[in-house]
Design goal:
With about 190 residues, the protein is mostly helical. It has one domain. About 65% of the residues lie in helices and about 5% in strands. It is built from 7 helices and 2 strands. The chain has a two-stranded antiparallel sheet with strand order 1-2. A hairpin with a 2-residue loop joins strand 1 and strand 2. It starts with a helix and ends with a helix. About 5% of the residues have low confidence.
Length: about 190
């Protein structure tokens, strides 16, 4: 009974960490920057397909593809921020929503064209397969990996991140900087879309 409860709690925490990793950038862009970026899932999709392509077509090992997946998402977000998003920083929520929903539809169609709509899978390394049995409970290695990566990414913020948060939240000492310079807003958007 307690072993199965521990397993369910662990699986829930691992899935929650995955959802957290996918949504943290969205909450930053919407909450701090007041920009309705509904296309955040498209940037995650770019990273996923970058991993898939590098592993299946070029034979890269799983861990080597992860930094490239972040880079692919960052590069696409930089291009879109410079060409599309920047023009709508001070636009209405509806305009921002329409733009980003359009980006979602276009990205889904583009990836469906190149990769079909069938589910794609990658072979994870042997050390991420299987599970560990502790006190009668089963803990999947891949889920442990997700939790470790999620906790590492949510490490304490740097001095620059703290400064950006301070400015974007319109702190009293930085009121003269409001509205935030486009370069600063772009920096936050690019960092959290990756």
């Amino acid at each position: 009974m307690l072993a199965s409860l521990a397993g369910v709690l662990f699986d829930g925490f691992a899935y929650g960490m995955l959802l957290f990793l996918l949504s943290v950038g969205l909450s930053v862009t919407l909450g701090m920057m007041n920009f309705v970026n509904l296309a955040h899932c498209s940037f995650a999709m770019v990273g996923g397909y970058a991993t898939l392509t590098l592993m299946t077509r070029f034979g890269w090992p799983f861990l080597a593809t992860l930094p490239m997946a972040f880079l692919a998402g960052a590069l696409i977000s930089i291009v879109l921020e410079r060409t599309l998003y920047r023009r709508l920083y001070r636009a209405s929520d509806l305009d921002q929503c329409l733009l980003t929903i359009g980006i979602v539809f276009i990205s889904v169609a583009v990836f469906a064209w190149f990769y079909t709509t069938e589910q794609q899978s990658v072979q994870v390394p042997d050390w991420l397969r299987g599970s560990n049995h502790i006190a009668g409970a089963t803990f999947a290695n891949y889920r442990i990996f997700l939790i470790v990566v999620g906790l590492a990414i949510t490490a304490p913020e740097t001095e620059r991140e703290h400064e950006i948060r301070f400015v974007l939240l319109d702190a009293p000492g930085h009121a003269v900087m409001r509205p935030a310079p486009d370069a600063l807003v772009g920096e936050v958007l690019d960092a959290h879309c990756a």
